[in-house]
Amino acid sequence: MKIVVTGAAGFLGSRVVERLRAGGHEVVAVDRVASGLEHRAAEAVIRIDLAHAELREVFEGAASLVHLAGGFPVDAVSLDGAADDIDVAMRVLEHAAGVGVRHALVLSTAMVYGAWPNNPIPLTEDAPVRPNSEFAFAVQRAELERRAFAWRAGCPGVSLAVLRPTVIVADGLPSRVARLLRQVAAIRTDEDPPAQYLHVDDLVEAIVVATTTEVDAVLNIAPDGWIRPETLNALAWNRPRPRVSRWVLNAVAELRWRSGIASAPPGIVAYTVYPWVVANDRIRALGWQPSNSNEEAFVAAHEAGPLAMMNARRRQQISLGVAGGLVATIVGAIGWVLFRRRVRR
Fold first, then answer.
1. What is the distance between the alpha carbons of residues 109 and 165, in angstroms, rounded to a whole number?
2. For the chain, what is the HEC assignment?
3. Which pLDDT belongs to residue 328?
4. What pLDDT, on a 0 to 100 scale, did the predictor assign at position 320?
5. Residue 329: what pLDDT?
6. What region holds the NAD-dependent epimerase/dehydratase domain (predicted)?
């Protein structure tokens, strides 16, 4: 099968290209850069700007498209640039259908379900898409899905797979989303949600399965089950995490972001407070099986920190110091919020 992969030089795309070629497929790797791909196979790597280049020859003779290109950042605090990114995706889809590509895959995120207190555990693909409006990345992905479904409705005979992976990690490398969530979760509210972590190798296999079966469906991608809050707390933290009310957590997150202490946008806070774990029955029914559990993926991505190497007494001393620093941050955040309210009056 001839398959076009956009975003082929990226963290995920390069792995997908390698895996598809190893499976005997003819892969056209497309990206604005091509570093690191040429040595993997003799097939051409095409360097083009998807927003402006002529694409007909890229898709000529291809049966499937895997669209992984996209530049909208997960730490965006507004939707500036979101439409441009979606327009590029739609341009790619339209050109692909125009030359006879019969299947397309678009990468979304499980964050489009939103993090809400009344979310079922787990969420299936039939759950409504309702991203938290303050988190621009999830809103942008939801709009991309809407546009892609509209494109699919206007292209009889073309199938579309939309993949919604949970938090992606790799060996020794948490993804940007994983790092942002961890920054915010240093402080918690009274509600600790369950969590899921997906190893990038398992996402690559899901993309291969969805592409080669030419499935026409929305697919959640996550390991079986989830990590319970108490288990995640034991895996992720070597120090006390102060509990605060939700509004204080929001204020602290905004203060840390505005001051540059943390890069996590305040809009991501809800995803550390309310559940958004997903079921994987649909992708499993296609023959996909995760090779890493949630816990294994998390541990593989997060190396033991320096606290784990210290004796208990020294660890306690540092933990108390860190907790004190967090309390000071919270007090400062409260003062900052009260000051802003006074100024507005």
1. 5
2. CEEEEECCCCCCHHHHHHHHHHCCCEEEEEECCCCCCHHHCCCCEEECCCCCCCCHHHHCCCCEEEECCCCCCCCCCCCCCHHHHHHHHHHHHHHHHHCCCCEEEEECCHHHHCCCCCCCCCECCCCCCCCCCCCHHHHHHHHHHHHHHHHHHCCCCCEEEEEEECEEEECCEECHHHHHHHHHCCCECCCCCCECEEEHHHHHHHHHHHHHCCCCEEEEECCCCCECHHHHHHHHCCCCCCECCHHHHHHHHHHHHHHCCCCCCHHHHHHHCCCCCECCHHHHCCCCCCCCCHHHHHHHHCCCCHHHHCCHHHHHHHHHHHHHHHHHHHHHHHHHHHHHHHHHC
3. 52
4. 39
5. 52
6. 3-221
Write down the pLDDT at residue 53: 92
CATH of the domain at 170: 3.40.50.720
- Would you state the pLDDT for residue 234? 87
Query: What range does the domain containing 90 cover?
Result: 2-344
Tokens for 194, please give them.
Answer: 């369950």
> What token pair was written down for 5?
């992969």
Q: What is the pLDDT of residue 138?
A: 98
What is the per-residue pLDDT for 71? 86
Q: Which residues in the chain land under pLDDT 70?
A: 34-44, 238-239, 303-345
